[in-house]
Amino acid sequence: MFNAGALILAAASGTLVGIGGTLALYPTHDQLSAAIASEPSLCAKLAAAGIQIPSPAEALEAFRRAKNTDQATLRLGECSKNTMGPGVQCTVKYKLRTAWKDEGDGVVAFSRGPDGWQAVQLQ
């Protein structure tokens, strides 16, 4: 047979060593900031810095014009070059009416025209 106490002691020791190793090797905020600063591709927002992205206010204004409502709310997520046309496409969370409780998820394409930013909801 086996000794249950030894088995429990071995499992507990292994768990504690694993937790201790994880905590000892966990990067600090300063270490993460330094790593992202030295290699911007580690952060999607910084990697997209080479493309023109509307500010949150510009995106909201364009989205409201596209949806023909002044009550819409919009939160921008990750943005990348639009594969189907000019400009960028961004993941968004939105509401078409401020009274609505839940936000919808979607993808909106933005492009800059002579009259400012234009928006088209793709999803």
Cα end-to-end separation: 62 Å
Structural class: alpha+beta
Radius of gyration (Å): 24 Å
Percent of sequence in beta strands = 25-35%
Separate helix tally: 4
Uncertain runs: none
The chain-level mean pLDDT equals 80
The helix content, as a percent range, equals: 25-40%
Main beta sheet strand tally, sense and closure: 4 strands, antiparallel
- Assembly type of the chains comes to single chain
- Strand/helix succession: HHHHEEEE
- Spatial strand order of the main sheet: 1-2-3-4
Gross morphology = elongated
Total E-strand runs? 4
Can you summarize this structure?
This protein has 123 residues and is of the alpha+beta class.
Give a written overview of the molecule.
This protein is of the alpha+beta class and about 120 residues long. Helices cover about 40% and strands about 25% of the residues. The chain contains 4 helices and 4 strands. It has helices at about 5-25, 30-40, 45, 55-65; strands spanning about 75-80, 90-95, 105-115, 115-120. Strands 1-2-3-4 form a 4-stranded antiparallel beta sheet, covered by helices on one side. It is elongated. The relative contact order is 0.13.
